[in-house]
Design a protein that fits this description.
about 160 residues; mainly beta; 6-stranded mixed sheet; 15 strands; globular
């Protein structure tokens, strides 16, 4: 079961049967990566986004690994921040905030304070228009998206 809205979760187990966090939930990760093995539907609101962040008292970019999806997630009004250490990100230790399959659906999602690329995928969609329509703030990579080791611009 998921925590209630506005709750703080220090470390979440790797859900395999699907996961639907509520708007306003703040998930704090204390290092490593969070692997989501089943479908994730994370739909926040503009006023109450779902936040994946560091549990560190004074976080910096790279305070934790990444969100690693084996199913196709839907992230809407989500904030991912302080990720990108590479620790446990897909088994290859990618420095990215999220590791996504091409079928991932990202809408009004903000990536900020990221070590590396906000988005990494080994199978990017043919058109990156929908992924590029999200917010990218303060990341250390040359471009916001890495498609199979190719830095990909959003312009």
């Amino acid at each position: 079961s998921m925590p209630a809205a506005n709750s703080r979760t220090r470390r979440t187990p790797n859900p395999t049967g699907g996961w639907t966090p509520q708007a306003g939930v703040r998930i704090e990760i204390g290092g490593g990566s969070l692997q989501i093995g089943g479908p994730l539907t994370a739909i926040g609101t503009a006023d109450d986004p779902i936040v994946f962040t560091s549990s560190a008292e004074n976080p910096i970019a790279g305070s934790w690994g990444c969100l690693y999806f084996t199913g196709a997630p839907r992230l809407e009004h989500v904030v991912v921040e302080y990720a990108g250490s590479g620790e446990g990100c897909s088994g290859a230790d990618f420095t990215a905030a999220v590791y996504l399959p091409s079928a991932a659906n990202l809408i009004d999602t903000t990536f900020r304070h990221i070590a590396g690329n906000p988005i990494r995928s080994n199978s990017c969609p043919a058109s990156l228009t929908a992924w590029c329509a999200n917010g990218f703030e303060d990341y250390t990579a040359a471009q916001p998206i890495d498609c199979s080791n190719v830095q990909t611009a959003c312009n």
